[in-house]
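Structure ticket #2291
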Amino acid sequence: MDNNQAFQDYMKNMFNINELFEKPEPLKGVRVLEVCYVLLGPAACDYLAEFGAEVIKFEGQKGDQMRFVTPYGFFWRNMSPGMEIENHNKYWVGMHLGNPKAKEIFLELVKKSDVVMDNLTPGRMATWGLSYKELKEINPRIIQLHVSGYGSWGPWTGRTSYDAVAQSMGALSSISGFAERGPIKSGVWIADWIAGLMCSIAVMAALNYRERTGEGQFIDYMQVENVIRWLDWTWLYTFKTGENRPRSGNRDLAICPSDLFDCVDGWIAIAAFTEEEFNGLCKAMNRLDLYEKYADPVVRLKDENAKEILQAIDEWARSKRVGEVEEIGSKYGFAASGVLNTKDVYYSEHCRERGSIQECDDAVYGPMVEPCYPPRLSETPSRLKWSCRPLGFDNEYVFTKILGMKLSKVKKLEEEGVLFKWNPEVPSHCPPDDWDGKRGIKYP
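Resolution: structure written out below.
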């Protein structure tokens, strides 16, 4: 066995996906109160929950809007796929914090929690008497994070933002697409997902600070600032040249060649930036004349040179099959990979072996196959324990376990409308039609 194979076997054993549930969770013991809707805030809490935080999600009577956001109006067992993907491992409470009694209960939970997160309209929590000033009076260690499209102050504060708007306002859309066409947005809610990721990092940074000082703090996060932060070399380039970054389609303006090319049976990504990689590509194409002219990576980046190189690769690739180019890339030492579709990735042996795609038997919804949070921790891995839940599904568990309420009091609060559960007339609030009334319920 060669050293590389021995190393891979060692790593595979260290990260054995069959042992996920035998290892501890890094955020176990951290309690998060989530007052979030749509995707931006719930995604942040999802990341924390997959690493073991106890996340309690609060919904008003209409429920999270994502219960109704689903491709082509498709629902699976009353569940919206748009709702499910950012709401793993959470506990579900039906309670509107604008209700005075609900506010009192929420403050009792704050005393026993570590983090409060919301993505409501800036200032909404304050109108309910739940601002950071008020929360820290009853729990000085509390960390509160508010995330919104434009933050809690500034000329844009209070404007409505969705993912497409954030991509546009952060200058991402303007540099995406082909030069001869208009701007284009990402096909997925990328501004929401990455902002959620950055929110979770901010919370962990604040938890670390609190561990050292005992002090909580308020975190204000602006989704558009997050988009701005991704645009790599754009800002220095614009600052120094006075020029906007142009749209360049699939071509990378800072690496050449790095582009997508059309083969006989599909598309392929090819990249070869170092001299060695570019030499290998030129040999494979029988175009060493290009290497003699453009061996220097920086020389290749000049616009007229890059266009000549990319045109040559385009003509070469059009007569090849995707698999053939991949094999040639491995042989000659340049990067070449086919453009995969979602089914390709879903059934990928590599992703299944690594646990990137995890199978789980959800107690409420049954067998599911889903992507997990990507970072791999050898001793404290993330995991998928259960999917999203119907509105108010965990009312009894949360209030009896955490606040020590008697079950009769929880029922009384539900009768008074302070707490509530799913509306039977709204299918996307509800469990599957064949739910037995017991599966998935947590007990104190």
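Closing remark: The chain has a mean pLDDT of 93.
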